[in-house]
Amino acid sequence: MSYIDGFVLAVPKANKQAYLEMAQKGWPLFKEFGAIRHVECWGDDVPKGKVTDFQGAVKAKDDEIVVFAWVEYPSKAVRDAAQKKMMEDPRMEGWKMPFDGARMIYGGFIPIHDVSA
To answer: What does the alpha-carbon distance between residue 55 and residue 11 come to, in Å, rounded to a whole number?
Structure first.
């Protein structure tokens, strides 16, 4: 069964291109280490909630957009090995993140319902 690493973060609107370039730079490494899919979504309709919401979860500022992203792996074992390899890979050194990584939320997820048309 596949395994999903999910991410929600706030990116300054002015950094959209830099963020996209970072994501595109990352995909070859994810793929090399076993990922089968990588999706980055730029917030378009992300309303403020009454109790909680995506914006509040990442403490998005007025000049930031919420990004929702995920990387899919064929299994948790492949994902765990990929994470270790990514952290040890010298190609990752010196990457500048065009967002505040301290406000990013992330986690690993086991799909329980996955259908397509």
So the answer is: 11
Best CA proximity match to 7, nearest among 61, 72, 63, 64: 72
pTM over 0.90: yes
Q: How many whole angstroms separate alpha carbon 56 and alpha carbon 52?
A: 6
Contacts of 58 (CB under 8 A, 6+ apart): 8, 9, 10, 66, 103, 104, 105
Of 40, 98, 27, nearest in space to 68 by CA = 40
**DSSP letter assigned to residue 59:** T
Residue with tokens 């990922």: 35
Position 92 confidence tier, pLDDT thresholds 50, 70, 90? confident
With CA atoms as reference, report the closest residue to 9 among 61, 68, 56.
68
- pLDDT, tens digit, for every residue of 99-109? 999 999 999 99
Residue 55, pLDDT above cutoff 90: yes
Q: Mean pLDDT throughout 24-42?
A: 97
Contact in structure between 8 and 104 (CB atoms under 8 Å): yes
Task: Provide the token pair at 28.
Answer: 């070859």
